[in-house]
Amino acid sequence: MPETIGVLHISAECYPAAKTGGLADVVGALPKYLNKEDLVANVIIPCYDLEWINNQSWQQVFEGKVWMGYYDQPFQIMQLQDNNLGFDLFVANIPGKFDRPGIYADPFGNPYGDEVERFVSFQKSVLRWVQHMQIKPDILHCHDHHTGLIPFFVKFCPEYQDLASIPTVFTIHNGKYHGSFGWDLRYFLPHFDNWVGGLIEWEGTINPLASGIKNSWKLTTVSNAYLEELRVDSNGLEWLFHEESHKSTGILNGIDVNVWDPATDPSLTFNIKKSAPYFKRENKRPLCKTFGLNPSLPLVAFIGRFAIEKGADLLPDLVYQTFENGFEMNLLVLGSGDPTIQYALNSMRDNYKGKYNTYIGYNEDLAHQIYAGADFLLMPSRVEPCGLNQMYALRYGTIPIVRRTGGLKDSVTDIGDPDGSGIMFNHVLTGDILHAFYRAIEIYQDKEAIRDLVSSNMQLDFSWEKSASKYINIYQELKTQAT
Length: 483
Ligand code: ADP
Description:
Helices cover 35% and strands 19% of the residues. It is an alpha/beta fold.
């Protein structure tokens, strides 16, 4: 019988406890699919003052303190009780650091100013806990820059020398954020010799993303195309991605097909019973009613953060051009972020009443209803490490209209090609998207073609099984290397 491999996922987010985007979805789903006979995967995140976390019962499993350069930071590790997530979930309760109502920012969107201190205390607390575990994990799997210092800490800080032989995997979900800070804050970090300082540095500052890339045993990104793009454009880290190519792999995310199941999803007005077109029609009708849209016209939706990477800055002009050019369709936008974009999108609602509407904010239920009720989902992303929305859309019979970039390239094919699943365009330009809309309207009018497309898209397999096995191969290889 193969020996069991224990993997501890260390992350800032995990669905359903704390989510701002795809990182949470991945950390909340992958471990479930890793938990097999010969693999045990657990997750630890900080303990935020968030509704879901506050409504659970937790049991303290460890208590300790870490030195933060000029004070001792106490912390407790708590384990979720009555757990049906499919993996053990732990939270690090670090008083004064994470007992706040937001993950990275307050409820008004103002980022917390002490991100460095918060996430250094989190990483140190997790390692202190691991040091005291009777059975230690075989692999520490760190996600994004918030946990990017851990591979360096365990390799080079004498304080964690007893963990130095544990392999680390570093996964980049979003390479835009590096979490950099100046050397003047070095006192928060555990002691290390000056000669290794270069291993957490990039261009003169301490760079947790670069540290994760340099010091982890294996580096993964959430799609292959994104890994290739990072070598060409990654905010100054291009050369580093080239340099570390030998240990890098792109693994496309999967989706949690139990949470995202058109047959059982409790957020939907209608679960799928009969045919796909019936499912779509029955979910489109109430959605159009809620937002005052015309159900006989194609409905194109956008769901996501109003950020430049997502191409959301283009949306106001796109809405204007779509309707001023007489495109016969509906547009519905769900999202939040940049206040200028929010304002611009809202201010056009009256001009195009009956065909256009917005919901500004974060609404998980509504997102599910839109995936089920819309005909098309627009993703004009400039950068898309993997993208989950297009996979949810496909599973719920909504045709993705996506820019050819990152994970979108790895998960959608154009309907102009054999077995195509969506509509693709090349540039983040209103004209390119309008052309895609033209194609969308054309296929929408061909009832037989759209029925076949929707039905075959809903059969596509984006479950985690395939991707999880690639992570398992990496863990097995590392465990062999470590012993
Ligand atoms: P990101 O770069 O934001 O992580 P992903 O495509 O990987 O992008 O994941 C986005 C996730 O967040 C999806 O589950 C999507 O449905 C969800 N999401 C984004 N914005 C909203 C919103 N305003 N309301 C509800 N869900 C949202």
